[in-house]
Amino acid sequence: MGLIVASVFSAIIILITVYGMIKVFSIANKRKEIYLRKFTILQVQLL
């Protein structure tokens, strides 16, 4: 009984961790996109 509860609990923790990592990664990707867009605009202006 305790083993099942422990495995379910660890699975939930892993899912939360993965979800959090995906969220952080997507936010970082969006920021990078914005940064790259600004950078390309700057390059175009310089040219």
Give the helices and strands, then pairings.
Blueprint: H1 2-46
Termini Cα gap? 69 Å
- H and E order: H
Shape: rod-shaped
Instruction: Please indicate the percent range of residues in DSSP E strands (runs of 2 or more).
Output: under 5%
Q: So how many helices?
A: 1
Average pLDDT rating: 90
Task: Kindly report the oligomeric state of this protein.
Answer: single chain
How many beta-strand elements? 0
Count of discrete domains: 1
> Which structural category fits the helices and strands?
mainly alpha
Compute the CA-based radius of gyration: 20 Å
Low-confidence stretches: none
Fraction of residues in helices? over 70%
Largest sheet: none
Written account of the structure:
- The chain is mostly helical.
- It has one domain.
- The protein contains 1 helix and no strands.
- The protein has one helix at 2-46.
- It is rod-shaped.
- The mean pLDDT is 90.
Give descriptors for this structure.
mainly alpha; rod-shaped; 47 residues
How do you describe this structure in short?
This protein has 47 residues and is mainly α. It has 1 helix and no strands. The N and C termini lie far apart (69 Å).
